[in-house]
Amino acid sequence: MLKILSVSDQVDPRVYSDSLLERYGDVAFVISCGDLSYMYLEFILTTLNRPLYFVHGNHDPKQEFNPGEPRSYPLGADNLHRKIIRNHDILMAGVEGSILYNARTPYQYSQSMMWNHVFQLVPGLFYNRLVHGRFLDLFITHAPPRGIHEGPDWTHQGIKAFRWLINIFQPAFHFHGHVHLYRPGEEKETVLGNTRVINTYQSRITEVHQDLQGSPSSVLG
Ligand SMILES: [Zn+2]
């Protein structure tokens, strides 16, 4: 069993705390689905001393001015956008940003630009299948897939290309953010074929079997 901490959209006081190491010191790595300050992510990374993989959200700035040097991403973390990364034999791939709704922030894309991002991943997914016996374990994005956990407005619509990737390549998990959860009982996890689609809003611990192929995976909220 492998524990993964995922975060997005809102600072979670359980994470931004002196007891972070005590509480989550046993995670293998950390995933950020975006819209969080780089300073917060650096706090998590340096406190836990574990790899942190991220995609940018639509609210992420090109430059964040914290104490010290301005930065365009959390220092020490790995950007998963249009990349496939393997850690602890877990295969991860990511796509940043939300649907295009204005020109004010850099990480917004039309549906057709999102198709382009997803197609970029496809050769690597086939390589995974050949070498590792499966296409993908974790798909990490900021926006949700089309038809799942979408908001009612234009800005929070799901991405068609993400839904296609889930249908074809069936990763064990799709972690996303972008859609804020305000009420208890709002849907944050949906099973689609072999894929658990999870809105990781604030923070979440997920336990996965390292042999993901064909084995059921359990999730802790
Ligand atoms: Zn967002």
Short description:
By secondary structure, the chain is an alpha/beta fold. It is built from four helices and 13 strands. The longest helix has 22 residues, at 111-132.
Describe this entry's structure for a reader.
The chain has 221 residues and is an alpha/beta fold. It is built from four helices and 13 strands. A six-stranded mixed beta sheet has the order 5-6-9-10-12-11, with helices on one face. A hairpin with a 2-residue loop joins strand 11 and strand 12. Helix 3 runs parallel beside helix 4. The chain is globular, with a radius of gyration of 16 Å. Zinc ion binds next to loops.
Topology, element by element:
Layout (H helix, E strand, L loop, with lengths): L1 E7 L11 H5 L4 E4 L5 H11 L3 E3 L23 E2 L4 E4 L2 E6 L2 E2 L8 E2 L1 H22 L5 E4 L18 H10 L3 E4 L12 E4 L2 E5 L2 E7 L13
Parallel strand pairs: 1-2, 2-3, 3-4, 6-9, 7-8, 9-10, 10-12
Antiparallel strand pairs: 1-13, 5-6, 11-12
Helix pairs in contact: 3-4
The structure holds zinc ion.
Zinc ion binds next to loops.
